[in-house]
Design a protein that fits this description.
This protein has no helices and seven strands. The protein is mainly β and 85 residues long.
Amino acid sequence: MVFVATFDGTEGIDNTEPDPYAITSQGNQVIISGVAEFPVRIFDAVGRLRATSTSHSDTAVFSAPATGVYLIQVGTYPATRIVLR
């Protein structure tokens, strides 16, 4: 059996620019900076929407109800997974 891989040079990662925001955590709080005027949505591990907001300041803070895995979506950027312990 012979396998041949063929790659198209025009496809791949199309955006290598860093996200304009940063996500950190402190205890049970999720701190998202660089989000002025971006909508922020926070989902739990099973996909339930836990919070949504549009911050008019540069920083948004979310207090998680419990430790676990959360997905943070800022604007139309892909969601970022975080783990709170």
